[in-house]
Design goal:
single chain; Jelly Rolls; 11 helices; 8% helix; 39% strand; globular; disordered N terminus
Amino acid sequence: MCRKTILFIAILIALQVVPVGNIFAADVWWRGKAGNDSSDYRWSTANNWWGVLGADARPPGMGDNAYMDQREGGGPLYGTIDSNCPIDPNTGAVTCINLIVGDWSQDPCSGDRKATLDVNQQTLDVTGDLTIGNMDTIWWSTKATGDVNVVNGGKINVAGDMWVGREGIGNLNVRNGDVNIIGTLRCPGGPLAYYGDQRYRYGEGYITLYIGGTIKAADIYSYNEFGDIAKIDIRGGTLILNGDKVSQIADLMSQGRLQAYGGGGNILCDFDVTNPGKTTVTSTYDPNLASSPNPANYATGVSLSAQLSWAKSSAATSHDVYFGTSFSDVNTANHSSPPGIYKGNQTPDSNTTYNPGPLTPAQTFYWRIDEVSGTTYKGNVWRFTSMNPYIASAPNPSNNATAVLPEKMLSWTKGILANKHKVYLGTSFDDVNNAVTPTATTTEPNYTPGNLSFDQTYYWRIDEVNEANNNTWKGLIWRFTTLAYKTIDNFEWSSPPVSAVWIPYGGASVNRTISTPANDGNAMVVNYNNTGSPWDSEVNYALPSTAQLNKRDWSSGGVKILSISFHGDPNNINAVEQLYVTAIDSNSHNFTVAYFDSNDIGQQLSETWHRWVIDLKKFSDGGINLTDIRQLIIGLGDRNSPGTKGTVYFDNIRLYPSIWSNSNNNMAIRLSTGTNPNGADLDNDGSVDMNDFAIFARDWRESSYDINATALPDPDPDLLLWYKFDADDKASQLYVYDHSGHGYDGTLYGSSVGSHWDPCGYDGGTYSYDFNSTKSLYLEVPETAVADTNLGGHSTVAFWIKDYGQPDGKMLFQIGPSTGNRGNLQVWSGWTGDYTYICGEYPVTGYRDETFWGRYGYTNPGHILGQWTHYAFTKDHTTGIMRIYRNGEAVAEYKSASASTMPAVVYSQSFFTIGAWRYPDNVGGYYTGKMDDFRLYKRALSQGEIMSLAGVSSLTQPVLSSANLVADNQVNFKDLAIMVDLWLKQPLLWP
């Protein structure tokens, strides 16, 4: 048995005797209010935090992830860790798992939303990663900004990596303090794990090391591919890295990313001198010294005709120039010794250049400028290395290039004596650097490798050979990264007409438009009409084969996925229709893959684009030759019977090698493959770690069960409200009578309210009420119906609905205060059947217990339009469980519900409405669909009782836990085995 399995079993056994709640990793969010004390910004103050798992306000501990952004509360985004903050007795420090300072949810509309954390005279231990400036704001209009200041003996210890600017703006300032990083210092950090079609927004990282400030890290990395910005300024502080990182420091200096005193000082760098086995970077600054050398200190590949230049000191009247090939000689030289090092005095003071003449190839040179102003001030010694004309240069693609076509030919400028070229190519720097057997040998300065993978970084080297004199000159190591995907069509072309490229058949017509549902430019618009023969609508694309990009080959480059983005008609709701894709190869074999949920084309403008991903193995298993695909067909309809008509937008048809499974298309992946692509990544953060294991341990040994309906008491003392929507209501037209016996009759509002009674209810008889958003219809309930504030802790709301979909989200009901358009007890549904259920409020934090079913912006496959469906929403504060039931079956649950009360409903401030949300002087979120048999109970009904309301006599309740990885309705060792296999692997890729 492997060690990982033994470890997990040991932990699991331990969890059976230790309360599981003690090991849960929670997400804790900064509020910065501290009750009524706006001057208290300490990390340790409980009321400065709130937790999404429903925990009471408390500061984060060693089992928590901490976030400083703007989620709730609206307090100042400033926090401090100082000597008054109590420490964890086990670590001797303030502690958390992962920390993000400045995250995506900051509100740019509320002034300066920069998040700032000061670590002052105290130690912070981060046992995971620390990220400063993480991603865009939630409105994508600005970048999230984070500042971390380590001062006055403060210390931060990071067990993982530190990211300074990761698609956001990060600032790290260290003055008389220490930052110790076990992993890598990343400035800027580069993109987050890939998800959906999100395009990378460049990051900005700023690090300033003042006097007394020290940063120690295993390595340093600066992402520099999409306009990323990095400024690492050493102003008297010290940077210490493990191993020999001198060349990396030189690269950063030559790029202008590492400087001293804002460019006015000098960087000093050594390996194994100041600190054994380590690279030490410090700085000096003297206003009397020359600065800003050109070529930059440690620059490489300098032209053989380069001239030297520098920035003079303010007082200098002339400049003594020293130049040579020995550090010691240049460092100790005077006007006469060693001979030939002193190059003379440059006058007047404005003459800050020197031409050393043609440089020797592949030579390291040292130079020094002494400033003369009556007194002579000895300068620092700078260095650079000249180019080698005997080795290959000018690589194409350029060094560090990105988005390179896998089919691209590699080329270079050959060395002056070379008549043959040895090519070394691979995915490992060390392998390519150490290789002795070439990948290929050419007589021309170019090479086409063929069949490179997409989304892969390659390293390459060219050794130049002169056969006549048997000389070989080893080349430099270059790198490039290939495109992340192969584009079949992104519709970003203006001619010919799209109908000439994507040929319409059957009931289809096609054109192109600037996407109304915002995507990234043009999209193909397919109008389908399947009301007549041939009952389907198709567009057919003949795939081209070009030297640049062979779109017919779906086997090379490691591609495994066909991805198609689509969006329903932004102006009208499409009726249900089957979407499918057909591939035809050069042998005229065809195979069709149908989209898994035909409801998804019925979306609205406000919803996000769907991204349909298909494992290419489906086509190959269907007999398709993936090396030569000649036609791609997109169709709607079933070809066998009359259908509907409507409009669907298509965009970004691509082939991918793999994708991170926790993406905007996560549901599409899961349902199109019939598996859980996230494996054991239960919290969907791209990693399998202790957070996921905590969920697994919580749900350990859960299994499905059979259950029978249970009769409800008659009369039921806990029934507070019962609207039958029956014949007597129809007779009144304007009122809905309460049949609970309490007399809480409701009043209908809107246009022509009396004309919307439907003679057919959920059981085929009596009546129901047909709410209509275009008529602004809603039902208002007397506040006395919910005077019992215990509803926030124990309650059930149940009803029947027949949903037709609508052009916006809808509020099925709302009880309680209207702050932020959200009541204390409510159910809000999105455009396509995703339900948000909220119940109960924390008086201090304003946080509400809530759970979800479905996914925002995506059709919920379990919610069927045009069909009577019973829903129930329960909360039991004693057990901490909230549940959503559909036709008697539990479909979603939340296991940490805490709030036990809610404020009484006061109609001057808040309302009880059905079919809309309500607050003073306004109503909105109108529901469209029929409703029947609405009930409110002041206790959580059992599942058997809910089944009775739904008319279901018995059912088998499946396991709801995401830890049921094997899909056998049990959380057991089979699921644990999957978790062990994926333990700490990231990112999780599919397929």
